Amino acid sequence: MIRIGTPYTLNIDSKKVSSFFKKEWSRPIALGDFNFYKWQFIEVPNQNNIDNCCIAINENSDVIGVMGVNSREFIDDNTCVNGGELTTWIVKPEYRNKGIGPKMINFLIDKYDILIGMGISTDALPVYLRSGFKYLKSIPRYIKVIDWDKII
Questions:
Q1: Nearest Cα to Cα of residue 133 among 125, 123, 141
Q2: How far apart, in whole angstroms, are the C-alpha atoms of residue 86 and residue 68?
Q3: Alpha-carbon distance 98 to 79, whole Å?
Q4: Over the Cα atoms of the chain, what is R_g?
Q5: Residue 135: which H helix or E strand, with range?
Q6: Side-chain half-sphere of 9: how many Cα atoms within 13 Å?
Q7: Segments in 2-99 forming alpha helices (H)
Q8: pTM of whole model > 0.70?
Q9: Where are the alpha helices (DSSP H) in the chain?
Q10: Banded pLDDT at 141 (limits 50, 70, 90)
Q11: Highest mean pLDDT of the ranges 25-29, 132-136, 141-145, 146-150
């Protein structure tokens, strides 16, 4: 039985998730270094040192898929909403095309109000589109500093 959740909710050590990236990614990746993984996903503001990445595990509690996620607050019409910034996504080859990707995305859709992802691979793009995501070829970048004193 495949379970979807976070390392925190599924009681999986984040070192195991980092090792999964190191083993399964087709080329060297910084996320395979646990210190970098920890910096990228755990020791970030507003996450209380909790790993919010989305993982899929099999019946033996082996990690078989990971979607990197950073929880973020987004401002929508002057209201803070719960958002997730999606990054590096990988599913073990022998588990691909078995519905795990859509289950991971559905888990994230249920958890967050807003999801964004950039640099989507051509392999993953159809899964996102079938899940109701919109594809933008380019994203305009606008920054509004609300309180300069807080960032100086």
A1: 125
A2: 6
A3: 38
A4: 16
A5: none
A6: 12
A7: 7-10, 14-24, 34-37
A8: yes
A9: 7-10, 14-24, 34-37, 100-111, 125-130, 148-151
A10: low
A11: 25-29
93 or 138, which is more confident: 93
CB 53 within 8 A of CB 10: no
Q: What are phi and psi of 27, to 5 degrees?
A: -145, 170
d(CA 90, CA 66): 6
Q: How many CB atoms lie within 10 A of CB 94?
A: 8
- Rounded to 5 degrees, φ, ψ at 89 are -125, 130
pLDDT given at position 64: 98
pLDDT in tens, 86-127: 999 999 999 999 999 999 999 999 999 988 887 777 888 888
Query: Which element (helix H / strand E) includes 100?
Result: helix 100-111
- Which tokens belong to 35? 């210190």
